[in-house]
From TrEMBL:
<dbReference type="GO" id="GO:0005576">
    <property type="term" value="C:extracellular region"/>
</dbReference>
<dbReference type="InterPro" id="IPR017853">
    <property type="entry name" value="GH"/>
</dbReference>
<dbReference type="GO" id="GO:0008843">
    <property type="term" value="F:endochitinase activity"/>
</dbReference>
<feature type="domain" description="GH18">
    <location>
        <begin position="17"/>
        <end position="356"/>
    </location>
</feature>
<dbReference type="InterPro" id="IPR011583">
    <property type="entry name" value="Chitinase_II/V-like_cat"/>
</dbReference>
<dbReference type="GO" id="GO:0006032">
    <property type="term" value="P:chitin catabolic process"/>
</dbReference>
<dbReference type="GO" id="GO:0008061">
    <property type="term" value="F:chitin binding"/>
</dbReference>
<dbReference type="InterPro" id="IPR029070">
    <property type="entry name" value="Chitinase_insertion_sf"/>
</dbReference>
<dbReference type="Pfam" id="PF00704">
    <property type="entry name" value="Glyco_hydro_18"/>
</dbReference>
<dbReference type="GO" id="GO:0005975">
    <property type="term" value="P:carbohydrate metabolic process"/>
</dbReference>
<comment type="similarity">
    <text>Belongs to the glycosyl hydrolase 18 family. Chitinase class V subfamily.</text>
</comment>
<dbReference type="InterPro" id="IPR001223">
    <property type="entry name" value="Glyco_hydro18_cat"/>
</dbReference>
<dbReference type="InterPro" id="IPR050314">
    <property type="entry name" value="Glycosyl_Hydrlase_18"/>
</dbReference>
<protein>
    <recommendedName>
        <fullName>chitinase</fullName>
        <ecNumber>3.2.1.14</ecNumber>
    </recommendedName>
</protein>
Amino acid sequence: MASSFRKTRIAASPVMYTNAVYWPNYRIYNNDTPGQLNYSCINRVYYAYASVAADGGVFLSDEWADAKAPCDGVNGALGSLMYLKSRYPHLQVLLSIGGPGSERIFPIVASDPILRDNFARSARSLVDAPEFDGIDIVWEYPANPQQGSDFLSLLAAVRIHMPEDRYIVTAALPANKHILQNIDLHRSSEYLDAINLLTYDFYGPWSSRSGHQSQLYAMSKDEPSGAGAVSYVMGCGVPGRKILFGIPLFGRSFLHVAGPGHKNRGFGGNADGAFDYSLLPRKGTKEQVDKRAVAAQCVGGDGGFVTYDNPDTVKIKAAFCKEKGLGGLFYWSAPSDAKDSKRSLIMTGFKMLHSS
């Protein structure tokens, strides 16, 4: 256990809104590093992902990428982030725990008081060693009311070992009412500093039809949307300032269609049917914005209909965040952003959040 003299958690930065990014450790293998980002427009990094063991223990998922790989002149992506934290006093770095596949282990750990306590103690030890500012829980996702109740119990256990005056605790949740209704969102938000609301992946390879993957507004009452998800979560009693609105730094591909609402006939891009935002619009296509839905797209080339966000849509979403009193924005994932500052969604979101 770390010393009880651990400093009080980082003071609120002078900016009014959070502009957070996820940095996945596997991006080391693409020659991406945390040092390549522009920290003048980022005040929080979620380092993804640490894993959870059967006994509830939390451990680094890739020792090489996290602690050993040559990275920005130091060892490991974590070494780089801790150095960057010393250079940028406003920067918060949180350890993101879970991610894809965690839906198998979290229900086991969260349902048992001893395993919950192990999780909380272990997370704190891992956080204290390099001086993270806290943790982000990414249980994908509590699948029924019992798991929702256990999720709340897990948050309570975490707060016993990671008190609010010294640690930031957040959780990522989908913008999906069928999952969110399993969770007492109001009580959960009392333990959390922020809910990272995944206001994207509304449509993808799993969908029967094509659609805008991160539209702010729905075109019919049956469709998911960012605004609809925010309205639902706030309606459950979550303060707006505790909601971070998600921006995807990737596009979803639907082949052989020219827009939303068509039968899904397959996808281009990588194995997930996605293209990094830095590779959009696709060669030979023209970028367009659906102003009603607030969604960007390009049609043709090797991606068919690709749905994504661009600077125009992010400006509107950032203005929406301000209007609704939300806490800010987050982006998945930082290395996929455009290198050109005029195209950068992270920079665009930051500027719009902090413009008068």
